[in-house]
Amino acid sequence: MSASNRQVLRRSRARRIVAGVCGGLGEFFGIAPIWFRLGFLIALIPGGVPGLLIYLILWFIIPSE
Question: Does residue 24 contact residue 12 with C-beta atoms inside 8 Å?
Fold first, then answer.
């Protein structure tokens, strides 16, 4: 793969609900963002901290489009 064809992880503007993290992950991995949203929702169940913390970290780490 050349440098121009390389996919870059970015937060999505088109598939955004809160910050675009799940939309960006979905675009990067080529799957529907609903699966990432479901994963974060499941991670919120045991008290909220695991899913929320991971989401917030990704929100600050992944640049916007």
Answer: yes
Buried b (16+ CB within 10 A) or exposed e, 29-65: eeeebeebbeebeebeeeeeeebeeebeebeeebeee
Token reading at 62 = 């992944």
d(CA 24, CA 20): 6
For range 44-61, the mean pLDDT: 83
| Residue 5, token pair as written in the block | 């064809």
Confidence of residue 11 (pLDDT cuts 50, 70, 90): confident
* CA–CA dist 24, 45 (Å, integer): 23
- Banded model confidence at residue 35, pLDDT cuts 50, 70, 90: very high
